[in-house]
Structures are given as structure tokens and as C-alpha cells.
Amino acid sequence: MATTSQAPPEARTDTAGTSRLRRLHEAGAAPFFVLAALVVAVGAYDSSFFQAASLIALLEQAAPLTLLAVGEALVVLTGRIDLSNAGLASLAGVALAHGLGSWGPAAVALVVVGAALCGTLIGVIHITTQVPSFIITLGFLGIFAGLSLTTSRADSILVTDGYGSIEWIFYRIFGLPISYLLVLLAALALMAWMKALPIGRRIRAIGLNERAAAHSGIRTRGIVIGVFTASATLAGLAAVFQVARLQSAGATTSDALLLPAIAAVIVGGTAISGGIGGVGRTLCGALVIALLRVGLDLVGVNAAFQPILYGGIVIMAIAATANRRRGASVA
């Protein structure tokens, strides 16, 4: 009589634990638990964190990161990745710093539109050549870095003329930073748009099974180009926020936000293989990463070591929550 082999109890326990963690992650609850735990931990270490000034500063720091993370999440939902958006934000910041004196508020619109066109170009090249998005965006990251260094002459650009056009972004209304309120309104509008219109379901369908989505009549090419355009547009907006906050721009001003933005997407519950996640989760994930940065500074962790932690977070989050049964690769 045939016997059925069974996995050892330890293996079954590990599998069940991983499965529960994955379900919690996919339900979108995990980042909220992590955020609550971090708030308690940081507050216990330094009670001044709960003061209004500290919380407002946290939201102000989180604004550019959240914009980059939301744009990244849209791309990741289709089963792809954008490694160029932080580099594009640095380039856009340099362009804005140069243009504000001559063009004033119009420079903001020109920079955001220019960033959007760069995203469209990335999407078109990716779709037409069928080269993986990882390779295409990595190449554009190098292009944007070179252009940033060239146009800034590898130096920081102090913004004086025309700064009043964007200075108001970091004013406060009723004690709350306008910058984060704008980010929150944009994110809520995007969430409503994705929920109310078929585009949200189509983006997720592409991430879950692009071939099946195409056979069902979804115009996958246009949507993929669209998410890269959206990611680049939000990168342009992040550049405006960075220049408004720092009153300066440099060739690498936003480069350091690339890994934290990806970490925010993954920690927020968006599956790296696509199809699962959303903007709301990414908002929470961005707050987790912003709060983690504050906590690391409080305990005295050198900024040079912080990217190591972000990289570890990405690896552990993917390892713990990836659905290996799908076997899908990111294009």
C-alpha cells in the first residue's frame, strides 16, 4: 500500500507561519502594525518625539519620499520596477533651480512636464524593445546622473531668484505642513481614481498575468507606458518639494531616496511581482521608512550605514512575503 510522505512538523510550522505573514502582508495590515510599533519604540526612546514640532518635521521629511514611493508603486503593480525616478528627481531639481529665476512659477510646470516626457520615453523604449524594465531604468539612471552633474557643474545651486514661487509649499496651515497635505490630497485622489475607474483593475491585472490581461482586451502597452509617465511626473513633483524644502539643488540631492522609496513600496504591502498592493499602503510604508530614518538618527546610527538597513529591509520583506508558487519574474 502506497504511503504518503509528510513534511516534518518544523517545516509545516515554518510554512504556516510564512503563509500567515504573507496573508497579513497582502491584506495591507502589516505596515500599520509596523508603523504603530515604530511610533511606540521611538517615543519610548525619546519622549520629545510626540511633540507637535517633531511630528510636523517627520511629515515634512516624508513628503518627497512619499511622492517617489507612490510613483514606484504604480510601476511595481504592473510587475516592473523603476530605478530611475530618484535620479530624474535630482535632474529635475537642478533644472528647476536654474529656471526659477527666469521663468518663475512656469518653471515648475515646465520641469514637471519635462519629467513626465522622460517617463513616457522610458515606457516606450521598454515596450518597443522588450528589454526588462530593470535594465532600461538602470541605464536612464546613469543618463540622468550624468546630465545632473553636467548641468549643475557638480556643485550645489542656491535658489534665490524666484524662490518665492515655491517657498509656500513648506508653509503650515492650522499647524499642519502644506507639503504633506498636498501629498495626501494627491494620493487620495489617485486612490479614488484607481478604485472608481477600470484603470486600477487593469493595472493589477497586468501585474498578476500580463498575457491573460492582453488576451482579455486590456491595452497593456498603453497602461505600462502610462505608469512610467506617472512615476516620472511624481518624481518631478518630488523635485519641486525638495528644492522648496532645501532652497537649493544638487546633482545627487534626491539620489539617496531611491532605496528608501523602494523599501516603502515593499514594506507597504505591494508585491514585487506585481498585482497586489496600492497607493494607500504605500502612504503607510513611506511613513514607516521616514520614521525609521528619524529613529536611526535619534539612536546615533551613522547615515552612511542606513542604506545597509534599507537594503536588508527590502530583502527580508520580499523573502517573507513573496508568493513563490507564482514563479513570475519582473519584466
Automatic annotation (TrEMBL):
- Look up keyword Transmembrane and say if it applies: yes
Q: Which Pfam families match?
A: BPD_transp_2
- The principal localisation class reads membrane
Show the InterPro entries listed in the entry.
ABC_transp_permease (IPR001851)
Topology term for the membrane: Multi-pass membrane protein
> What keywords appear on the UniProt entry?
Cell inner membrane, Cell membrane, Membrane, Transmembrane, Transmembrane helix, Transport
Places the protein is found: Cell membrane
The molecule here is called ABC transporter permease
